[in-house]
Amino acid sequence: MSTTPKAQAAAGERSGSPELVKGLGLTSATTLVMGSMIGSGIFLVSAEIAREVNSPGLLIGAWLVTGFMTIVGALSYGELAAMMPKAGGQYVYLRESLGPLWGFLYGWTLFMVIQTGTIAAVGVAFGKYLGYFFPGVAADRWILGPVHVGVWKPFGLALGNMDMGLNTQNLSGIIVVVFLTLLNIFGLKLGAAIQNLFTIAKVSALAALVIAGMFIARNASAISANFSNFWRMDFPHSASGTAAGPFVGVLTILAVAQVGSLFSADAWNNVTFTAGEVKNPKRNLPLSLALGTGVVILLYIAANFTYLMHLPFDGDPHGTTVIARGIKYATDHPEVASVKPEDRVGTAAMLQMFGAKGAALMAAAILISTFGCCNGLILAGARVYYAMARDGLFFKSTGVVHPTYHTPKNALIVQGIWTCILCLSGSYSQLLDYIIFAVLVFYILTIAGLFVLRRTQPQAERPYRAFGYPVLPAIYIVMALFIDVVLLRYKPQYTWPGLIIVLLGIPVYFVWSRRSAALTQG
Known about the structure:
The chain is mainly α. It is 68% helix and 4% strand. The protein has a two-stranded antiparallel ribbon. Residues 1-15 and 238-245 have low confidence and may be disordered. The chain is globular. Helix 6 packs antiparallel against helix 16 and helix 16 crosses helix 17. The longest helix is centred in the last third of the chain and has 35 residues, at 356-390. It contains 20 helices and two strands. The chain has one domain (19-521): Amino acid/polyamine transporter I, CATH 1.20.1740.
């Protein structure tokens, strides 16, 4: 017999404290998957990938690798989500399969860098594109500061070199974070409604970009240049010179290029954080993961084909037209010299298709995309800290549910405060560079936990069993391990800091767990 959210809330109140309620159906769960994945990355990172792989075919290959890994990961998580439909999602899976330390390290890294850093970056990206319509919103329009932090080079890693303070661009991001945090405090249904609206809008906008790109004003010279030598293998990266041979060199190049594409396709696991609030979770969680990741990956790959139909793959960083800049050095204002690549592939493609109106449409689409992405990340992330607090491994107050709105109010507020600090610090962009290595480590551990639970809990109810088990999950682990090893070798500046952030959580775990044990005994 099913129960309504109001009935669940009343039952929680009778038990002594308010509880989270099940207010997310299949549609809301699926839009949470899709909306959390689609931010601004798909419109930007293809330029950096192009500079890494130096081949149109390998640009698509990099996205195919990302797509395969994302969908296999989602299908594997589906089994864990249906088996343990509890608030906290991935934190719970790691806790149950590998032990509480591993769950805590994930939650610690999520709070310090992964979730909050991503929210900060997406929020400031909102401010960046808001500046397209309101020039007063810009990174150089300072309200307080800036205070410049010089370069710090511990162990040969370049950290710092950033400006801290409040400018109109990061103020816009902070306003978005505060607004959406407050909105999500006032009920799950309100947050879910906003998520549904903005996800449908941005998926429609991305689909429109793809459809228009396939049929409107295709650039014959770009198509000829890009597809006549689609699989060329002239690598600029040192990894191409590996002594193991050209095939291993290709795999290495694709692994190095995964930093951008994997990050752009990440956050699909956020729906598992809200598992305790999903209706019929044993069916809807696996289904939402499969549907959401499948649709987004299809759109991402199609969008990259669209870029190749309108912009030449190669370009001149000093070019004065959109065509001259190409995909590698894409910008929406090529007449203005830039110190570093802006990587605005999406707006450059729309500018090529529709002129100035196209660039404005793309800027508007990215505003919608980033706003919706922020909402999904804010809604979902707080549920992990709530679950940790219930286990005595985070601030006790974050484990409290609002008595009227039945949301983890304090977890949302703490998450919002730290996110705003990251916006002001100017360090979030560096932090994001460091997290993909750590993200992959936790994906590897979680999917390894699937094997562990099959062995240690063979009789547990599994409404859905991972598709392709054990082959596909094992392939995922091997691929992710290979990418992490390659990143350690060729991009140490992106890997060691992320690993250090994870390891710093170990002493914090023991302090917090002992404190929790002392309070329990007392």
